[in-house]
Design brief:
heterodimer; A: three-stranded mixed beta sheet; 40% helix; B: alpha+beta; Butyryl-Coa Dehydrogenase, subunit A, domain 1; Butyryl-CoA Dehydrogenase, subunit A, domain 2; Butyryl-CoA Dehydrogenase, subunit A, domain 3; 3 domains; two-stranded antiparallel sheet; 11 helices
Chain lengths: 400, 368
């Protein structure tokens, strides 16, 4: 697709969103329960699929869009300007579904991919455990051979949307006698299998998408193994890398710099507008500079992808910076509002309401790579610094 | 590759090799020890490579490679903590061509590297552009003084932002530093390699530049200086990050390289993040400078703030990561520590630029 065609395509997509999105966003979502909102989200997903805007990079034969990564990025950025019920499908379509496309049999893909892409099914990603988060390879959920399949026993934790999931991808420990990275095996499984128990965890604030999932002798056929026995770590890393360029809103879902300016212009410190205060202006200047730098990085990544190149490693700083910025900016805006900001309406939009922008920010700094792990990754992969002291290396897992 | 790109690659690569040979730590230490010092040999060599005219239009005797060439060359200078008045040459010619044609001889000499310019713009006792500059023009004669100005110690001509006492408004004047009534002193400064001097004027003869709006010209000049300096700052912080990472891989304590400790790794990752934010701001601001965009003020301010803050962060922490060796005269790390602070002050300091950015915040998002 040349730049002109891409522009035309985007203009058409924009018009389509203008026509369709209002019925699925903003006012249309107000006052809905999570179940109702999810039902609306499923309809939105199906509508997008019919129009070729769902999973734009996945083949049309599975009800994907059959388009390019550039189209997907542009559409998602556009879609983010609407407040749509997409969140339930973010993980499902972001990681498990592309992995099924790579590892599933033709028959399974024909059956399951359209259902996932159209929002009829949700897939979850069963990776973290109570004692395995940043250190994924420390997981202990056991997989033992049983005839043509495997029996799973143990617990997963922080599994997003497991309470709504039909299918899941899971990493298990199939051999505890070898070093930890070598003893893992990866499967997909039916979340309605006997012995799977999902318990939703209440977060400090906001809607509860996270769960603990217990596995009590759950049977998984060997045909649902993805990758080699003992090759699960490699497939897990592949899963985390599958989305080469994740589209994220520049305010990280919180309040924008412009919203902050708006609040600061109306608040007063003594007899002056808060926007004239030096401390407020300094925070604002730092926020604008950071955003400007990230805009440039994003633009250059788009240019690289459009030219068929890999984007530079500097994209790795984005989540690290914007998650922290969201927290700081939310709290600073609350300061300017004074005691009014003590009032908490959890249904207010995070992009508009500083209270929700602040109170729901901490999980973002943890999910999908903690700030600390992101810094480690930058240090080791980009700056080529040595790994931390690793006493677990080369030692059989059951001797650690 | 276009003809211009080829020419740019050539002078850049020649320049890089030259700087690697010539801008040595020994040379830098000697320069730092002597107020008003200037690396004349290095300047003569880059003049031969055509650096002074690289960014200037062909009509001004330049190679027509534009601001992006000046930016690239300053990034090379910054990386070696070398100081040459390329930016000053471009800024001076930019001002002179806005004024009347009889300034052409200055432009030609500057483009050829036969003359060196300095620019006196910022005033004492404030971080930003002075409303009333210190040097005063009365009946065509200049009196008063500049602050410490980079390359004033060796400049042949000085562009001075002055106060026109007759009109009661700022004015741009140009004068030859050899003119009667011009004196210069070279005080000890934090970075003596900048060829800094204070110029004093006593009824000095000068030419008034016929620029319609001298204040607007001053703002535009400061913006251009901010953008190009941002690339010099980026070159400097890249060296700081590179040196700190090298040291973190080599230096061992408690039987392991210090780079294996997260306190060090995370500190270096944070410098990297600041560097890439600064680079992003600078790249976008350079495009606005090249296109003479009306959005330049906000983009230049973002580039100035991003690069200044990030360079100081990198230079400061680079010394810290080097431990005791980092605080010695023998180490090279103080070159960047000095330079980061000097560049932070030479073109208006951050309190001024933050004001400019916040006042023009909406400009950043026009057309985005």
């Amino acid at each position: 697709m040349n730049p002109q065609e891409l522009n035309d395509w985007l203009a058409t997509a924009r018009n389509w969103l203008q026509e369709q999105a209002p019925d699925y966003s903003g006012k249309a979502r107000q006052g809905l329960t999570m179940d109702e909102d999810l039902a609306l989200g499923r309809r939105w997903q199906a509508l997008k699929s019919d129009a070729g805007y769902a999973c734009i990079t996945l083949p049309r034969q599975y009800d994907g869009g059959g388009g390019t990564e550039m189209q997907k990025i542009l559409f998602e950025a556009e879609e983010k300007t609407w407040d749509l019920p997409n969140t339930y499908f973010g993980i499902s379509l972001g990681m498990p579904v592309p992995m099924l496309l790579r590892y599933g049999s033709e028959a399974v893909k024909d059956e399951l991919l359209p259902k996932a892409i159209r929002g009829e099914h949700i897939w979850c990603q069963l990776f973290s455990e109570p004692a395995a988060g940043s250190d994924l390879a420390a997981l202990t959920l056991k997989a033992t051979r049983d005839g043509d399949g495997w029996r799973l026993n143990g617990q997963k934790l922080w599994t997003s949307w497991a309470q709504y999931s039909d299918w899941g991808i899971i990493v298990t420990r199939s051999d505890p006698t070898v070093p930890k990275h070598a003893g893992l095996t990866y499967f997909y499984l039916d979340m309605k299998s006997e012995g799977v128990e999902v318990r939703t965890i209440r977060k400090l604030a906001g809607e509860s998408e996270i769960n603990e999932v217990f596995f009590n002798n759950v049977y998984v056929p060997d045909s649902q193994r993805m990758g080699e026995v003992g090759g699960g770590f490699k497939v897990a890393i592949e899963t985390l890398m599958v989305e080469r360029y994740a589209v994220s809103d520049e305010a990280c879902g919180g309040i924008s710099a412009e919203r902050f300016i708006d609040i600061a212009a109306r608040a007063r410190i003594g007899s002056r507008p808060a926007l004239e205060d030096g401390e407020v202006r300094r925070l604002l200047a730092d926020t604008l500079v950071e955003r400007q730098g990230l805009r440039s990085i994003h633009r250059r990544a788009m240019e690289a992808i459009a030219a068929g190149h890999e984007p530079g490693p500097e994209g790795a700083i984005r989540k690290l910076l914007i998650a922290k910025r969201r927290l700081l900016l939310g709290a600073a805006a609350m300061d300017l509002m004074g005691p009014d900001a003590l009032l908490y309406d959890s249904s207010a939009a995070q992009s508009n309401d500083p209270v929700n922008a602040w109170i729901e920010a901490p999980p973002i700094r943890i999910a999908g790579g903690t700030d600390e792990i992101l810094r480690n990754t930058i240090a080791e992969k980009v700056l080529r610094l040595p790994q931390d002291h690793r006493p677990d290396k080369g030692v059989p897992f059951n001797q650690l | 590759m276009s003809e211009h790109m080829e020419a740019l690659v050539m002078i850049r690569d020649q320049g890089r090799r030259l700087l690697e040979q010539a801008a040595t730590p020994e040379r830098q230490r000697a320069l730092l020890d002597q107020p008003g010092a200037f690396d004349r040999d290095l300047w003569d060599q880059v003049v031969e490579l055509g650096w002074p005219g690289a960014g200037l239009a062909e009509a001004q005797g330049g190679l027509g490679l534009g601001w992006s060439a000046v930016a690239e060359l300053h990034q090379l200078l910054g990386a070696r903590a070398a100081s040459l008045p390329l930016l000053q040459t471009c800024l001076a010619v930019d001002l002179l061509v806005q004024a009347d044609a009889d300034q052409a001889r200055h432009s030609e000499a500057l483009a050829a590297g036969a003359a060196i310019a300095c620019v006196s713009l910022f005033g004492p006792g404030e971080p930003g552009l002075p409303e009333r500059p210190l040097a005063t023009l009365t009946d065509g004669l200049l009196s008063g003084s500049s602050t410490a100005v980079a390359f004033a110690a060796v400049a042949d001509i000085a562009l001075v932002y002055a106060w026109d006492s007759g009109a009661g408004s700022p004015v741009w004047v140009v004068l030859e530093t050899s003119a009667t009534g011009v004196a210069r002193s070279t005080p000890n400064v934090i970075d003596n390699a900048r060829a800094m001097a204070v110029l004093t004027f006593e009824n000095a003869h000068c030419s008034v530049l016929s620029i319609k709006d001298p204040v607007a010209a001053a703002r535009r000049l400061a913006a251009a200086a901010a953008v190009i300096t941002a690339f010099e700052q980026i070159g400097g912080m890249e060296t700081c990050l590179h040196d700190a990472c090298d040291y973190a891989r080599e230096r061992r304590v408690f039987a392991q390289p210090i780079g294996a400790f997260q306190a060090i790794k995370h500190g270096l990752a944070d410098i990297y993040a600041d560097l890439e934010v600064a680079r992003g701001c600078a790249i976008d601001a350079l495009a606005k400078l090249e296109n003479a965009s009306p959005q330049l003020p906000a983009f230049a301010a973002a580039a100035r703030i991003g690069a200044t803050a990030a360079y100081e962060h990198a230079a400061r922490e680079n010394i810290q990561f080097h431990g005791g060796i980092g605080v010695t005269w023998e180490s090279t790390e103080h070159f960047y520590f000095r330079r980061s602070r000097s560049l932070a002050l030479e073109w208006g300091s951050l309190p001024y630029w933050r004001e400019l950015l916040v006042d023009n915040a909406a400009m950043l998002t026009e057309g985005y």
